[in-house]
């Protein structure tokens, strides 16, 4: 893939959430905050530190409007000094087709999108395998790293899949 036209997409499931009367208001649990903090340190160092650093100013961090996703995004953005944007189309009930359409309409830019199950698993499956039903397990605070020139079904390459428990 040509460096100028390819971009990277990190799909992340929010950290473990506590309970609330309304699903959209569920906050991160203490364990969830710890999971995400661990992932944030790893992400900042692995993707934007060391000798193979990507440019943080090329990264956009987008999150579901749900509280747990917004809290996850804030923790992920903090070590990078990046502003979090809300992406309304990545809630647990949303379909993946509008997300793919949105990705295709965007310029080549790296993005970290923080969302929920089943959307993160279905979107990963559709972009990599061409099949939204190809769902892999997606633990809380896990990140799938994808790269593509075109964000369409079956056109992305899975570069890695990391969870708080499998970090080096």
UniProtKB/TrEMBL annotation:
GO terms for cellular component: cytoplasm. Signal peptide: none annotated. SUPFAM superfamilies: Phosphoglycerate mutase-like (SSF53254). InterPro entries: His_Pase_superF_clade-1 (IPR013078), His_PPase_superfam (IPR029033), SixA (IPR004449). SMART domains: PGAM (SM00855). GO terms for molecular function: protein histidine phosphatase activity. Transmembrane segments: none annotated. Pfam families: His_Phos_1. This is Phosphohistidine phosphatase SixA. It comes from Pistricoccus aurantiacus.
């Amino acid at each position: 893939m040509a460096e100028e036209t390819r971009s990277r997409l990190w799909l992340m499931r929010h950290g473990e959430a506590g309970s609330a009367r309304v699903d959209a208001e569920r906050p991160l649990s203490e364990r969830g905050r710890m999971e995400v903090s661990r992932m944030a340190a790893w992400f900042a160092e692995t993707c934007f530190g060391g000798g193979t650093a990507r440019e943080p100013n090329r990264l956009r961090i987008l999150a579901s409007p749900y509280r747990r996703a917004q809290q996850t995004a804030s923790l992920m953005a903090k070590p990078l000094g990046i502003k979090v944007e809300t992406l309304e189309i990545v809630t647990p009930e949303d379909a993946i087709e509008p997300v793919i359409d949105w990705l295709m309409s965007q310029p080549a830019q790296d993005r970290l999108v923080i969302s929920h199950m089943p959307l993160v698993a279905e979107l990963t499956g559709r972009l990599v395998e061409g099949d939204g039903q190809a769902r892999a397990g997606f633990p809380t605070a896990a990140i799938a790293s994808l790269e593509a020139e075109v964000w369409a079904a079956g056109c992305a390459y899975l570069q890695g899949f990391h969870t708080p428990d499998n970090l080096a």
